Amino acid sequence: MNNQWSSPPAGGNGGSDAEVNAHLDGLFHAYRQACADPEPSVNFMPEMWAKIEARQASTTIFNRMAKALVTAALGASVVMGLLSASYTPPPTSANDGSILQALANDHAHDLEPLQIERISELEQQ
Amino acid sequence: MLVEFELLQQAQRGDASAFNQVVTAYRRRILGTISRLIGRPEDVEDVAQEVFLRLYFSLDQLRTPEVFEPWLYRLTVNASYDYLRKSKRRPESRMSDLSEQQVMMADAAAGSKAQTEEGEKHRVRDTVQSLLSSVSEEDRILLTLKEVEGLTLRELEKIYHVSENSLKVRLFRARQRVLKSVKGVTRRRGNSASSDDGL
Known about the structure:
The complex is a heterodimer.
Chain A (H helix, E strand, L loop, with lengths): L16 H18 L9 H43 L12 H8 L9 H9 L1
Chain B lengths: L4 H8 L3 H23 L5 H15 L9 H20 L12 H12 L5 H16 L4 H12 L4 H8 L3 H35 L1
């Protein structure tokens, strides 16, 4: 085992930057050696496959629900489309237009062109 | 790469035996990386299984063989992040939290001829995990990948999808913080030693 890390730079100032850097590199190297890759347990693969299957099952349920929702939404759209196509609006009267149309009808006489002759008559009166 | 691309392609097509071979080829390496990233031996297998589970469900997105390993590392890093976020735990060992006397005793014990190699390894793990706890989880993982796992900047670039310069800056800062902790511990040891000399 690499033992270079266990002799840190001594002294009250904590050692020079180069020494501390080298010490840290030694520490990391020793750490890598001290933490060997662990052996997987015998249950590693079976547990992993159990998790995969559980995730697959939940994904399948979610997919089915999503498909059912999409189908229901599609059906509702078709029904609403058919209803709106078969809808016939009641006959319209003169005032059944827009609010602008209604106002125009109501004040039609105010919008007549000015009669110059009438103004002169008024002035004479 | 530890496996042939054809094997990956078979696994992509849903061949369970091919996927098993891929897992068998990489699991020790992934277990090792995770154990060094999360510092919790009892949870390492769980996190590794999560990595391979994510791999299984995203394997069909793989197009070229050269991105497989960086991608697997990315899954490993992400699963480790998720675990750390969920558990909000740090490695148990805290050499820097020990009293001066305990540090001295640990040093003395480690320095004696009767020390076992296992005890020495344990002390290294304690020390490094304690030093790495002085930086954020993200920086600790980045530093571990670079300094302990030995990944190159180019490999890290592929894993993190950030430029090499940004990685250099981040690594430099993280290392500076760890160095500061090293100096702190060394200073404490130096002071303890000089006070002992005076006795």
